[in-house]
Amino acid sequence: MRVRTAGFTLVELIIGIALGGGVAALIGMTLVRQQRFHSAATEMLDVRSQLRDAADVLAADIRGAAVSPHGLPVMTDSAIEMLTTIATSVACTDPVGATVGLPPRTIASGTTLTSILLTPDSGDVAMVYGFPGGIPDSGRWETLAVSAFASRALATACPESSGFTTAADAGPGFVVTFAAPPSAAVRKGAPIHFLRRARWSLYRSSDNRWYLGYRRCNAIGPPGCAAVQPVSGPYRRYSGSSEVTGLSFRYYDATGGELAAGSASDAVARVDIVLRGETAKAVSLAGDARSTYRDSAIVSVSPRNRKR
User: Fold this and answer.
1) For residue 8, what pLDDT is reported?
2) FRET pair for 25, CA 20 to 30 Å: which of 218, 223, 237, 292?
3) pLDDT averaged over consecutive 10-residue blocks of the chain (308 residues)?
4) What is the pLDDT of residue 107?
5) In the chain, at which residue ranges do the beta strands (DSSP E only) sit?
């Protein structure tokens, strides 16, 4: 009597293996497509994020630029240099030589007397408002180079006798030392703005790609800037044509007329910024042809401290 055992024939095994291999191949192709999709989407979103971040930081700096008193030291199609406010305060006491005491950031009453975005130091400049002869209508701004800026105990920087602080204030206050003593027109209560000279530009890095770079420059004294620091990018390469270059600036006066680069910089009333970014390699989202993804952003900014 012949005994039959359960199992698969060779043909059935071959067919099963072939079907399993086909299913595995389909799953693998789907996973590869999903990975490519997510990789492409990430690169495209990175380009948009870089454009948005650069537009925000440039708009903020240009909006706060002190154009009226200082102009724009550099204004080209791919670079702009300006003096921007990094801190504000008020003289807590009359100057002692070249030193002036400042109140703390916040006093017990909740009033903000000192606001510091970046700590001033040597190389920055201060604009101090003085009243010659004590006559308010004759007030004017004095420009002084900053030698040092440091925090100090309230008893030294802004004592209760100044009228700006009370026993409830914990401090600390601040002390600023200028390169030269302010004039006699500067007295207790004088507003003080601290300015820093900065340059934003499109530059080519050592990897042969183009980035938005930041340099801190001397506000007063010998010209000179620190090494460039990359802020965002990469962007499209620099080109003499504003239609394709990665970063371009255009300048306009109060009447809407375009100003030539390097012209009367204190006449700038509006700056148009165009940013153009692209992915580092060709990408594809849904199986379409792979190509370099490009995007752009356009921002118009009017400096607050401009000629009216």
Assistant:
1) 63
2) 292
3) 61 71 70 68 82 90 85 89 91 92 86 89 89 67 91 89 85 90 89 92 90 87 82 85 82 89 80 88 70 84 80
4) 84
5) 74-75, 79-90, 99-102, 115-116, 125-130, 140-152, 173-178, 191-204, 210-217, 229-235, 247-252, 258-259, 270-283, 291-301
CB distance 246 to 202 below 8 Å: yes
**First and final C-alpha spacing in the chain:** 113
Distance CA 49, CA 229 (A): 19
Comparing CA positions, the residue from 187, 182, 15, 2 lying closest to residue 93 is 187
196 vs 123: CA distance, rounded Å = 8
Distance CA(67)–CA(269), nearest Å, equals 8
The count of other CB atoms within 10 Å of the CB of residue 273 is 20
User: Tokens representing 127?
Assistant: 């604009």
Residue type, 285: L
- Tell me the two tokens of residue 46: 């990175």
Cβ distance 148 to 126 under 8 Å?
no
Question: Helix, strand or coil for residue 153?
Answer: coil
What's the angle, vertex CA 32, arms to CA 27 and CA 38, rounded to 5? 125
Which residue reads 């499109």 in tokens?
202
Radius of gyration of the chain from Cα atoms?
A: 31
Q: Determine the Cα–Cα distance for residues 234 and 204; give it in Å rounded to an integer.
A: 9
Contact yes or no for 269/307 (Cβ under 8 A): yes
Tell me how far apart the alpha carbons of residues 163 and 254 are, in angstroms, rounded to a whole number. Answer: 42
Please report which helix (H) or strand (E) contains residue 10, including its range.
helix 10-63
CA distance 195 to 85: 4
* Cα 86 to Cα 117: distance, rounded to the nearest angstrom: 5
Residues in the chain: 308
